[in-house]
Amino acid sequence: MSSNMKAQRKVQQKDEDGEFLQMAALQQNVRTLTNCRIFAGVMAGCIAGLLKIEGLLGVGVFILVTLIHSLMIAAKMEFEVHRHFPKSRDLFVSQFGGGLLSFILFWTLSFDMVHIF
């Protein structure tokens, strides 16, 4: 059987059975995304605190940094997000809360250290 025939059979099997996801790889991708969200939250918090950004504008900084970071990750994956996550939107909205908590912590910490003390 030629390799072209095998490839066609795999494509047909994928179409019939749905998407194939390896759980170990998916869990690793989610863990890595969690670490990325925390890092983006820390960086956004430091930026907002050092620049003395207050109120909802500070939260806007977090959303902007998280969006830019998600686009950079998507670009690294050559915009084939569906190969690494069950849904493409997971890259942009998944693990948002963990990054937000890190953002608030570092936002208040850097703001207080630079502008209050």
From TrEMBL:
Keywords of this entry:
Endoplasmic reticulum, Membrane, Transmembrane, Transmembrane helix
Transmembrane portions of the chain: 32-51, 91-109
- Topology of this chain in the membrane: Multi-pass membrane protein
Q: Where in the cell is it found?
A: Endoplasmic reticulum membrane
Family of this protein: Belongs to the EMC6 family.
Protein name per its UniProtKB record = ER membrane protein complex subunit 6
